[in-house]
């Protein structure tokens, strides 16, 4: 496995789904990966990366971005309200907008600074108690609130329950997005990104299949 293999598989999945080449953006999830591995993928030419934590991104990316200035960063993990401002400075997109308080915080800071990352609303498609995200039944209302605040919501994001068939969740997310006029679908990870592409994913989040297994201290 590696970057070229994943890129090839994405292109094949796009073709199989009757979609144009390049319609899916690969977010290389670099959380907890050693800098040497991240640098190797940057050297291969990849420029879109995902991190789970603001603090880890702060320590890792400023130096890389100084050397690879066209790099774009996506926050794919949960965002604490007290780290909203820093996240909005660091990231080009936030995939984990999951509650009204956070949306209000983003709106307030965006008004102050005159800029805002692209936003994805995280949907708890499996309605799991331990997982963040807006319940499917509440998505329409929450998106209406976000639009009233003029937030740049580009799409929806989900992480299907581990023990359930992901296609059911991909189909639900696609239906919710279409109903609300959103084109962005952040769904699909190392084990199921090809299936996600068949359901319309525009952003897939792949980590270990590119970098190798994560190294935890």
Describe this structure in words.
The protein is of the alpha/beta class and 217 residues long. It has a single domain (3-211), classed as Alpha-Beta Barrel (TIM Barrel), CATH 3.20.20. It contains nine helices and eight strands. An eight-stranded parallel sheet has the order 7-6-5-4-3-2-1-8. Strand 4, helix 5 (100-113) and strand 5 form a beta-alpha-beta unit. The longest helix has 14 residues, at 3-16. The chain is globular. The two termini are 24 Å apart.
Brief sketch in words of this structure:
With 217 residues, the chain is an alpha/beta fold.
Which helices and strands appear, and what pairs or packs with what?
Layout: H1 3-16, E1 25-29, H2 35-43, E2 48-51, H3 54-67, E3 72-75, H4 84-90, E4 93-97, H5 100-113, E5 118-122, H6 139-148, E6 153-157, H7 166-179, E7 184-186, H8 193-198, E8 203-206, H9 208-211
Parallel strand pairs: 1-2, 1-8, 2-3, 3-4, 4-5, 5-6, 6-7
